[in-house]
Amino acid sequence: MKRILFILLIIFGLIPLAVRAEEKYTFDLNETEKKPYHAAGYVEFKPLLFGLDQDAAFYKLRFFNNPQGNVQLEGNGRVLLEGSYEKDILSLFARINTDLKYGYAGGSERTTFYEAYTSLKPSSSWRIDLGKKTLKWGKGYAWNPVAFVDRPKDPDDPEQALEGYILATADYIKSFAGPLKTFSFTPVLFPVYDHVNDAFGGKYKLNIAGRFYFLLYDTDIDLIFMTGGSRPDRYGLDFSRNITTNLEVHGEYAYILNSQKNVLDASGVARQVEAEAHSYLIGIRYLTAFDLTAIIEYYHNGTGFTQDEMKNYYGLINRGFNTYQATGNTAALVQAQQLADAGYSRANAMANYLYVRFSQKEPFDILYFTPALTWMMNADDQSWSLTPELLYNGFTNWELRLRAGLIFGAGNSEFGEKQNNYRIELRVGYYF
C-alpha cells in the first residue's frame, strides 16, 4: 500500500499549470475553400515502467527461462500518418502506422497500413469502398460485441486507432419524414485467404456481413449479421438514445452460433466445447453542468471462460513452471502458451465486467487540463484495476498524458495473475 500511495502522490502531484493567453483570430476567404487533399500525422514517444509480479501465472509463463527483476523499463514510439484525396465522385484515403518498441528482449519495429481504400460516391444515397478499412460498428465505449468485422478494442485504451481489414463495402442511405427519419444499409464482402485477412479465421472463405441502420423515434438502431465460414455465424443488435441533452443510454447484443473454445479440466486435459453464445453490453454516458463526463458499462462476454476454467489454466502454468524448474521440461508451458494464443491471454477473457470512467474538463479553471479515473472490475472473481490519468494539451499541437495502471486481485483471479502489479506510462504526442 505504501508503494501504491507513493505512485498516486507522484501522479497527482504533477498537475500542470496553464497560463491564460489571449488568442487572435483572423479570417481568410481562401481558408473556406475546400481543398482536394488532406494530410496529417501523429508522433508519439511513450516510456513505460512496469512493476512485475513474480508470483503471477502470466509472469511465470512469459519469463520462466529469463527471470526479470521487480521492475522493467520499456520504450515505445509511434508514427501515424494519414492522407486523402478527393476529386468529383472519387476519393482515396490511407493511414499508415509504425510502432517501435525497445524492452528487455531488444528492439522491434512494425509498419502496416491501418487503412487504405478507395471510395466512389455516384450519388448522395450511395457510397462504395474498396480496400483496407475499419468499420467501427457498435455503440459501446470500452467493448463492442457486435463489431463482427473489426479488431477488438483494448479496454484499457479504447480510443486508440485500430488496424482494419481488407474488404469491399457499400452504403445506401435514405431520409424520410416521420418517425423513421433515416435508413441505411451497409453490405460487406470480406475474404479470408493467404495473406488476405488470414489472421481473422478459417481460410479460403468469402464472408458476408451487413448492417441495417434506423434512426427511429430519435433512437439509433443497428441490425447486424455476419456469415461465411471463417468464424461461426453471428447476429447482433445495438442502440443508442439521448434520454436528455446530457444523458445517453446505449447497448449491444450479439448471438453467436456454434461458438468454440478450448477448456481444461482440473488435471490439465484440454477439450473443445461448442455451444451458442450470447454477449451483451449496456451503458450510459452522462455529462454534468460542470463538464464531468461519466461512462458506465456492464459487459457480458458469452464466449468468455468461467472462474473454474481459468483456475484450471493457471494450475497448468504453475505445474508446468514447477516441472521446468525441477527437470527442464517445457511441454506443459508450451501447451499453456498455445492456449494463451488461442484466447486465454486476450484482454478480458472471462465472462462479466464492469467499467466506470470519470473525466473532468479543466477543473479549478486550469486550462487545457483533463484528469480522468478509470475503474474496471471482473465481476466473477472481484479482481480489478484502477487507472488515474492526467492529460494536458496547452501547447499547440502537443499532448502530454501521464497514466498509472494499478492492479488488485487474489491468486487465481484474472487481474491477480497478470504479470504486472502496476504500470506507469508517459505519452508525449505531437500532431501535424
Distance between the termini: 42 Å
Question: Structural class of the secondary structure composition?
Answer: mainly beta
The low-pLDDT segments are 1-27
General form: globular
Give the tally of β-strands.
18
Please explain how this structure is put together.
The chain is mainly β. 12% of the residues lie in helices and 51% in strands. It has helices at residues 2-12, 57-63, 307-327, 331-344; strands spanning 37-52, 71-87, 90-103, 106-120, 126-133, 165-175, 180-192, 205-216, 219-227, 234-244, 247-264, 270-287, 292-300, 352-360, 369-378, 384-392, 398-408, 420-431. It has an 18-stranded antiparallel β-barrel. A hairpin with a 2-residue loop joins strand 2 and strand 3.
Main features:
432 residues; mainly beta; 12% helix; globular
Summarize the structure.
With 432 residues, the chain is mostly beta strands. Helices cover 12% and strands 51% of the residues. The longest helix has 21 residues, at 307-327.
